[in-house]
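ugh ok fine here u go
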Amino acid sequence: MADFYETDEMNSEHSAALQACQRGIDQSVRNQADAMKHIDLAITKDNSYCLPHVIKAWMLHGANDESYKEQISAQVELAQQRLPEGVSKESCLLDALKSMQLGQRVEGTHKLAALCQQYPTDAYLQMLAQEETFWLGEAKWMHAITEQAAPHWKNTSKDYGPLLAIRAFANEEAGFYDAAQRYGMESVEIDATDVWGAHAVAHVFLMKGEFKQGIQWLDGLSENWGNANQMQHHLWWHYCLFLLETREHDKILELLHTKIRNPESRLIKASPAATIDINNYASLVMRLELYGVDVAELWQNLSVVCSARTDNHASVFSNIHDMMVLGACGNFAQATQLLFSMSERYQDESTTGSIGAAYREVGIPVCKAVLAHRKKDYARVISLLGDVRHQLYKMGASHAQRDVFYHMLVDAARKEQRTDLEKQYLSDIERLGFCDVPKRAAYC
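structure:
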C-alpha cells in the first residue's frame, strides 16, 4: 500500500519544502529535539505549501498546553488557506486536528484511526494515533490500531524500527508484556537511539517487577539519548522509578537536578513549562514524599510555573500534577483558582466534548483528593479518590504514571487504619497488571 507521503510532490514546485518537512516528520517519529526546526525550515522555504503548517499545528497540539492555542489556530488557518483541492493528506490531518481543538478527542482519534487503516505503514500516523489513544486512556484501542497495521510492515522500511517501538508500547499498555519486550528490544537493536523502544521495555520491566533488569537496561542505553526531545528526561524518570524500588533515594535526588529537571538543560531553558517535565518532576517528588523522604524544598522549583497554569486546561493529567505542586507549596489560593477554573470551564456537559467529560468525571475529583491529601484529610481522600479509582484511565497517561494515585490511596487508608480498604486497593493494583504488588516499596 502506498505510504502517506509517497506522492509526486517531491518533483513539484514544493519539493524543497517537502524534503525539509519529511525530515521534520522523521525526527518527530524518532522523538528527536530538532523536529520542529525542520518544519520551520520547510515553512521558510515555501510558505505557500500546506503540509508543514499542518504538521506544525499537530506538534504544538502534542504539547498539551493551552498557551499554544493561538499558535495552533494560526497554523490551522494558514493550512486551511493553502489546502490542495479535493481530499488530501493535509485535509484529513487538518480535519482530525480540528476535532481535537474542539475538545472532541474521541472523534478526532477515530479520524486518525481511519487514516491508519488506509495507510498502515505510515509511522507518523501511527505515532499520532498512539498519542491520542494514550491521552484518552484507551489502551485496548491503541493496541487494536497498531496490530491491525502491523501485518503490512516490512523490515526493509526505513521506519520499521519506530513502528516496532510503537507496537511495543501498545502491547505493554494492553498487558502483553512478552510481545512488548520483544518488539521494543528489536527496535533498539535496529537503532540504539530509539527512545520510544527503550521506553516501552522500561515499562515492561516496571510492570513485571524486574527492577534491577530495568536499571541495567536503561544504564546501557542512556548515552544514546543526547539528541532526544523531552523523552530523555522521561526515561530518567523511569530510571528513578526503579531506584525507588531499590531504595536509592540519594541517587534519585541527584538525578532530579541533573537529568530530570536540570535548569541548565537546553530543553528546560527552551521550554521551562513543558507539561511532560512538570509531570515527571511533580510525580517523582510526590512518590519520594510518600516514601518518607524530606522533599519540602524541592516542590518550590515548580511553584512559579504551576501558579501560572491555573487557567490552562489542555490536559487533565497535567492539571492534577499542577495541583500536587500548588498544594505542596501552600499556594492554596492558586489551588482554589485551579479548581474553580476547571469547574467553570466544564460545567456545561453539552459543549465541551470528551475532554470536558474527563475533567468532570476524573480530573476535578482527583484534584480535590490531591488537595485533601495535602491537608491531611485522609477520609476525604478515600471518599473522592476511592470512588473514581476505576476510572483513572480517563485522565490519560500510562499505568506507571497513574500508579502514584494508588500510592496516595494506600497511604490514606493506612493513615485512617482502614486495612480492609488497603487490601482492596492492593488487589485493584494487581488487576491493572502490576506484578508482586505487596513487595513493592510503596506498599510493603
